[in-house]
Specification:
By secondary structure, this protein is mainly alpha-helical. It has helices at residues 2-9, 12-46, 66-94, 96-99, 109-121; strands at 57-59, 62-64. A hairpin with a 2-residue loop joins strand 1 and strand 2. The chain starts with a helix and ends with a helix.
């Protein structure tokens, strides 16, 4: 069982995934800092300092904080847009040859069937 776990843990896909998660978390912190400290205050200045997080509606003892939900949607939209721009800049920096590599062409279905047929004849 230990050998199987070692084989599983040392597969390239698992290690690649672990590296991607760590780098993604670090990139997430960078994007969050950018949005929280630079983009959101700029948007706040543009919108006149509007903050929806305090909006709520009370019915009996229940408080519906719909403003926090609206603010979360706005924050998500800003983060998604910043990530989109960052990915666009990274792709531009890579250059067109790395972005548009043609997919390797293999034999067609008919060619594969002909190869199988020829192999069976032998």
């Amino acid at each position: 069982m230990l050998q199987e776990f070692k084989a599983f843990a040392m597969k390239g896909n698992v290690i690649d995934l672990a590296v991607a998660v760590v780098i993604g978390a670090a990139f997430g912190k960078i994007v969050s800092s950018l949005v929280d400290n630079l983009i959101t205050p700029s948007v706040g200045l543009f919108l006149g300092g509007v903050d929806f997080s305090g909006l709520s509606h009370t019915v009996g003892d229940a408080v519906f904080g719909y403003g926090a939900f609206i603010q979360s949607i706005i924050d998500f939209t800003i983060v998604a847009f910043v990530i989109f721009i960052a990915i666009k800049m990274i792709n531009r920096a890579k250059g067109p040859e790395e972005i548009k590599k043609p997919a390797p062409q293999g034999p067609t279905e008919i060619e594969l069937l002909m190869q199988i047929r020829d192999s069976l004849k032998r």
